Amino acid sequence: MMNNIRLKSSFVFVVFMLFGMLGFSQQKPYQNPNLSPEERAEDLVNRLTLEEKASLMFDVSEAIPRLGIKKFNWWSEALHGFANNDDVTVFPEPVGMAASFDDELVYQVFDATSDEVRAKYHEALRNGEENKRFLSLSVWTPNVNIFRDPRWGRGQETYGEDPYLTSRMGVQVVKGLQGPEDAKYKKLLACAKHYAVHSGPEWSRHELNLNNVSQRDLWETYLPAFKVLVQDANVRQVMCAYQRLDDEPCCGSDQLLQQILREKWGFEHLVVSDCGAIQDFYTSHNVSSDAVHAAAKAVLAGTDVECQWDNHNYKLLPEAVEKGLVKEEDIDRSVKRVLIGRFELGEMDPDEIVPYAQIPASVINNEEHRQLALKMARESMTLLQNKNNILPLSKGQDKIAVIGPNSDDEPMLWGNYNGTPVRTISILDGIASKIGKNSIVYDKACDLVEDKVTQSYFSKITADGKPGFKATYWNTPDYTGEVVATQQIVNPIKLTTAGQHEFASGVKLEGFSGKFETEYVPEKDQEITFNFGATGHFELFVNGESLRSYNNWRTLPSKIPYKVEKGKKYKIEIHYAQLNNWQANLEFNFGKEIPVNYEDLLKKLEGIETVIFVGGLSTKLEGEEMPVSYPGFKGGDRTDIALPSVQRKCLKALKDAGKNVIFVNNSGSAIGLVPETMSCDAILQAWYGGESGGQAVADVLFGDYNPSGKLPITFYKDTTQLPDFEDYSMDGRTYRFMKDKPLFPFGHGLSYTSFKIGKAHLEKNEIDTSASVSITIPVSNEGEKEGVEILQVYVHKKVLEEGPIKTLKGFKRVNLKPNETKNVTINLASNSFEFYDKKARAMKIMPGVYEIFYGNSSDANQLKKMELKIN
After folding, report:
1. Which domain holds residue 636?
2. Largest CB tally within 10 Å, which of 6, 334, 527, 624?
3. What's one Pfam family here (predicted)?
């Protein structure tokens, strides 16, 4: 697609000339595309009233018709595809992409994603749709926080625990999203988030104060990726985080936003707030007395755009000016940055002269992008254990069992902050493509977490004498006006607007409400359980009593136990309404909970030798600020990194029954798998693999793809190896500072072939502080299969107090045929030897001796060492 865009460059030049001849010179300067974005913004800001300036600083910025300014939304997401949109390509979660160690492929993924965003955006506007949240040319991606603790539920959104790997990946994300730096227009505006020192816990992020982060940890761990994205990728947005750093909220921090971001790094573009972060100033952090003072504080610190669900605090900026809390020129400074960003996108110019506006809708989830999603998913697959080379499996086996809670779960593969794909290949479907459905015995076997399953009573309910629930719908959000549809629902409720599906014929996709009514008469006294989840407004009533009510922006599993009496009538009623711009979703079932029975499962599996168990976690359990909790989980984070006990017991039962157990682990974070290394013959870390994740898993399991993924995070043995979750000191955390032996180290990943790494050669053994140096490493494939090895180079400054044990500074993917040897050269730039100097109170390349480690993981036993002297 980019080639087509470049071909249009000569056409664009001709159009510019024609427009100039037709009278651009007679238009107001801000309307003239031939002027720079800075010149246009300077002119336009002087034409705005103070109230209009404030409104342009909202994430939902309404139109200003008198000046021809259109409505604009700053909040869209493109974490691994265009989020909150239908029929798009859904790539693997970023932590899975990081496992590929393939930043060139990451660029291709986000170049494709930005094509789809542009195509979706322009198609919607041309169809008369409103420019709304999540349909914007500003995307709040990438998340380059350091995944310092595996308990953090949002770590799946990051590129792992290492600053260098995160930086390499993040740069390519930005370049893919924004397009060529020398182009007249930006394809999209990317955003580096969440700045800074942010990685959980979710439950305390609005109040948390980090006042003991060392300068070494700040500069060596938490800031490098942001600095690189600002200086090397020229990212157009930086999002400030929720918590406080040294008593100041990040969105009101002079240290972060002025001293570091603008003065030290020279950042000239937009700072946007995380959603609700300005409100936290006075509701949670208590550093401002009210909304007026919070708005003034944020603007003075340098936060240009406020994200707020509604009722923006920035609407009070005129009052703040009147009170003398902030000057109008301070607001002008922010508004100019806002306008420059919009002019850079070309969204105020005719589509005819913006090349990216010509990207056709046919690019969305086209075959090229589908293949790209599959390629990325394959490269993310990380083989952790393979006893007796049980993998790859033979396709000729009579029967294979595929069991586990994630086996046939398509949404699990989408991860979080996701769009909805046209089609998804589940892991069960992927395996079936290799050996046929008739060769598979399938059983869910157990839940992700619960050690009980619900025996559904849906067949025992009636509404108006008919089986099931009676559903009534209105195309208003408050159950008023004309009824637009009714329906009888006879199976457990599972309704969604994802994929442009209506809840019922005639019901709008947004702004609707519905009531679901039925009656249940128990056959005996007992305790039943209501299981439900919803995205939107949900309220459950039984005999007029409200049992649960909430407004939620994602569907999370919830349950309520309820005692019933034999023969008594129970009227069950659900009130549902779609909210904001989130896709509507409603799930409901109820019945009796019964314990999981592994005896029945084992009887079903009699005579079957090989069992593929697909389990782990899902975004129903780990994610952002989630209101539901289970044992070992809290608010989207985890309190225990062990595999949920119900799955652990199931795996042990399978092994005790003599089965060959292949464990496919889906998760966005590290899991303590010590018992699983004994109960499982092979362990494949499959992350959340996107729309083609199931095909990629099957390709690896059956040997059609040789796995090459490497862990971008440390897999600890258990929670006892972790410091306190809210302690942001890096001491003892990640491979860079961990002195204990982990279960699986950062950089670990097996192949179906064997590689040998020979003795490396340094270009020079002695350099000065301004020089770079290259290291050449021979690597051989001594096995029988073609495969990819990922060489890794680490650096350590000898006699450096408190510094990292070693830290990644170079890597390269190497494809080798059997019996092939290549000499691979990796360049170490001068800043590879930059560490925090306490005396200088700054990052610095200090003279001395540096150790250079090289190998195929961070495990000391897998690394070879040489030394370099810097004068």
Report:
1. 367-450+597-737
2. 334
3. Glyco_hydro_3
